[in-house]
């Protein structure tokens, strides 16, 4: 896809999905979004939002999560899957935030990915939605749709992140993530994509 086609694509995404899309994970602050994003691995946002309603009522601060009983924490987050690993990661992550950053979620990609259980995807969700730092989040929808559009290749999320950063204007990075997730859920589905209904079909090479 050349620069003109990319500009047309971004304009169409803005037209159909808007430019001010809220994050799909419910949160009131940085630590809640960080926690919710860790839980979202191999789990739907809808299910995570149901679990975090109870989780955040039980643990009202990063310090509370750092000191959480692992059994109780795992029991609350069980519906998100992989709950034993997620419980250990969340507890260790917030203990590290307490020890290294005085209880505040750090802003830099380097500090975020140094936390237990935090990879580039999770770090970029927090950086983009909390700190307004231009970031590309590569989840399954972004990977699939971006590859179909010819914007990237391969299956390595980190390589895809940098490929997208190279071709997309920085001011679009944050909303591209959310727009493409919406598009992937509604039209460009993994199985039986609705190509006939897709407003990006003119410049799309196809599935």
Describe the biggest sheet? none
> Helix- and strand-based class?
mainly alpha
**CATH homologous superfamily classification of the largest domain:** Hypothetical protein, domain 2
Overall body shape: elongated
- Count of alpha/pi helices: 11
Structure summary, number of beta strands: 0
Q: What name does the CATH topology of the largest domain carry?
A: Endonuclease III, domain 1
Distance between the termini: 14 Å
Residues in helices, as a percent range: 55-70%
Helix-strand string: HHHHHHHHHHH
pLDDT averaged residue by residue? 95
- For this structure, the quaternary state is single chain
Strand content: under 5%
CATH class category of the largest domain: Mainly Alpha
Protein described:
The protein has 207 residues and is mainly alpha-helical. The protein has two domains: 3-22 and 135-203, Endonuclease Iii, domain 2; 30-129, Hypothetical protein, domain 2 (Endonuclease III, domain 1, Orthogonal Bundle). The protein is 58% helix and 0% strand. The protein is built from eleven helices and no strands. Helix 1 crosses helix 11 and helix 2 runs antiparallel to helix 8. It is elongated, with a radius of gyration of 18 Å. The model has no long low-confidence stretch (mean pLDDT 95).
